[in-house]
Amino acid sequence: MEKQIVSKSKVISFAGAFIAFLIGSGFATGQEVLQYFTSYGYFGMAGVLVVYLLFLYVGINFITVGHEQNFPKGSDIFRYYCGKSLGTFFDYFSIIFIYMSFVVMIAGAGATINQQYGFNLSVGGILMGILAAGTVIFGLGKIVDVIGKIGPIIVVMSIFLGMASIFKNPEGLAQANNIIPKLNLMKASSNWFFAAGSYVGFCMLWLASFMASMGATANSKAEAKLGAIYGATGFSLAVLIVALGLMANIEQVAGTMIPSLYLASNIHPVLSTIFSIIIVAGIYTTAVPLLWSVSSRFLNEKTIKFKVLTMVLSTIGVFVGLKIPFNKLVNIVYVINGYVGILLLVLMFVKTLKTQNFSVKTKSSTLKIDSEI
Questions:
Q1: Residues with Cβ < 8 Å from 306, sequence gap 6 or more?
Q2: Which residue, of 134, 245, 304, 344, is most buried by count of CB atoms within 10 Å of its CB?
Q3: pTM exceeding the 0.85 threshold for the entire prediction
Q4: Is-contact 247 38, C-beta < 8 A?
Q5: Number of neighbouring beta carbons within 10 Å of residue 318
């Protein structure tokens, strides 16, 4: 039996990395929360609950399976759940999607700096490309350490922003459900339940290989599991409160590229400046592991070729990310890939059921043999 060593600092680091990876440009800017949750009114809040439960399931599965199987490559987790053929499809599809998501991060950084400071879009995009490539070159261990510390700070700031926005305009929250249908908001899906499923779907394609690799570094299954539980809980709580904050000010944030910056400036101009930095940090914490996931899929991170590939991918990402509007990128890239992620979720359920049935049959056979003896 495995000795269940649990390091509190490592649990916090895992949870922080989980949260930080999910924050990205979509969440930190508020654009993702607006399209997937707030645009559905009160039903969108039910969507957050669905997302939380599914995040618990996929997060615990990815990180504990990564710990138990210790895959040569994190992307091998797709073959574990889906078999050789479908697993290979998900492996390559996820790499394409992950790189597309990195492009979204570049666009988000450019849009944030542009809205807050009036600089050209290229300033934020190029800065993010340089920061992401520079960090990836140092390897996975450094990535988990860096983003694991930034993630919880961003969540705390986001929760503060959401709560302050609610308290500042509680009447807006009460009226939001009647106002939202009239605003023609950009939505992730035709209804709130599909939107929630799509949200978890695209996040799964991000998380799978990264969390499997992270789980392999855990001291025990219990340590890995706790990291996923705290990460899913912290992130989902932040999503709920930010979604409510946006609902309370829905008429003002509708149509804005960076809704979170509007909420911050509505509270105090200084907070807007501070939160613009928080948003860029949130984008950074997701851009880095996304870029690492693509580069490490093809080359060993300790090689010179890995570093060259990372710089090339970052440069291309900056060029493409500054050509397409940020809110359109979020809607197109995340939504399409979210439905592919739902298929992965179904296959995970099937694998879990098969594994549990096998486990029950094995225990039953063992008990029968013991009784006969």
A1: 137, 295, 296, 299, 300
A2: 245
A3: no
A4: yes
A5: 25
